[in-house]
Amino acid sequence: MNKRCWFPNFLTTANLFCGFIAVLFVVHAKEVGSDSNPHSWFIWAALTICLAALFDALDGRLARALRVASPFGKELDSLADIVSFGVAPALLAYEHSFQTDPMHVLWMGLCGLFVCCGAARLARYNIGGTRGRFFTGMPIPAAGLTISGLAIFPSRLSTELMAVVVLGLAFLMISTLRYPNPEQLIFDAPAPIRLLFMIVFTVALVDTQDWFFLLPVSYMIYGLLLNAVQALRPGEA
To answer: What one-character DSSP code corresponds to residue 188?
Structure first.
């Protein structure tokens, strides 16, 4: 194996490691219960998922820059993503938003459905890849970040509304709707858009509890609007 592969694979492994740490943070929040401040551990979990997304955005870019993109790296990336943006956010959403609800068994199945749809989304991507600058279906990092951000939002969504969000994101991941490649928005978009993205990203890191959800929710809405515009103008799709 080309030794230059180690650099992007290290970033992918860092993504996976952050996902594992996020799971530990959620478990620890459950263990401390009301005797301490469990909400702070949920915030740390969401922040770690956000860090995993940063590593996920960088690893593919670095692999292509070094010309070492490989099937191994692609498979490793998918394995990391299902942990960091499937299992970790679903566990965070369940423990923070659903676990104390009388219908928690139903919500347990719903969070499991989110993970399964994320896995199906990754499997489809590994087979088909992207269509130019677009993905088929909402990427799992964006879906995972969305439910993580909404789960820790101070003005908590009602249990029913949060369930609708989780179900909707699961559907968007396995849908055939086109979503723009976030990497293109980060690195290849016009400078003002990249600057705006970095400002929002920085605000999300500095004040995670209040603003973490803005970035992925904006991406979700942007994708839906883009598909709506293309549906109205099919000749330009």
So the answer is: T
